[in-house]
Amino acid sequence: MTHSTLIEVVLLLLISVVSVVMFKRLNLPPILAYLFVGILVGPHALGWVANDDSRRLLAEFGVVFLMFTVGLEFSLPQLKAMRKEVLGTGGAQVGITTLVIGVIVFLLGASVETAFIVGGIIALSSTAIVIKQLTEQLEINSRHGRLSVAILIFQDLAVIPFLIIIPMINSTGDNSIVLELALAMLKGIAFIGIMLAAGHWLLRPLFYEVARQHSSELFTLTILLFSVAAALVTELAGLSLALGAFIAGIMLAETEFKHQVEVDIRPFRDVLLGLFFITIGMLLDISQLPAILPQVLLAVIGLIILKFVIIFFISRLSGFENGVASRTGLV
To answer: N or C: which end of the chain has fewer CB within 10 A?
Structure first.
């Protein structure tokens, strides 16, 4: 490690510690502190730390471990019981938001293709930010917390058709799009089925054998291997890293090692997730903000109100009370 790299690491840690303490004293979530650090040290401000591919890749592991620990809070029977929320509420949210935003963007003068892409982007939410916030507020197991997670699961699944349709959006062959979608969905279902089957038959014997060695280091290494390998499998299938890690957590939730796994993985999750939010902050060029501040504020307010209204009414139609529906919309 060169001296310049070491200085970058020390600066990043120092500013992160000071910022988290400062934001905590202001009763603001640590996520905002990490985003602030990213903005401050990134290439568009002080330029002390470069936002290169290696750092972004490392930061992605924070999301992987976050979704892995979220999966530990669920089990297969619970997930089956949530299928109405995942497919019904989550599917309706993505579909309706994409349509409504797409129509608005089209009426503002954009092409149909651009309107669809913008609608699809805005229909999705940041899984990392939402779940991190729910976890910190101890609301991940509340009714609105579980409904929010169900919507996020469908959003992660919805990435697959979006990634297929967007590159082909100017293609004239509609049949090719349908075929690509069908093949991708079949491949994704097959991969998830194989993962669940492998976890059911192999996971418990594997962790029993590891536990018999009485080595905490080996146990932690096995957890890291399993969670990252599961994320890799789903990425190879065209799904997201986060979804693979979530499935891995669900599989381990069926075993008696669940609580020990959660304790061992938490330090990796928190540190790397903080790095993830810092890298997101580095993407913001604050020098461009003053020129477009009114449009940004209007877009933010409109986005919050619109998505809140859509999710509130979908949740109400799904049978949830006003309180659960409103909290889910806000989340």
So the answer is: N
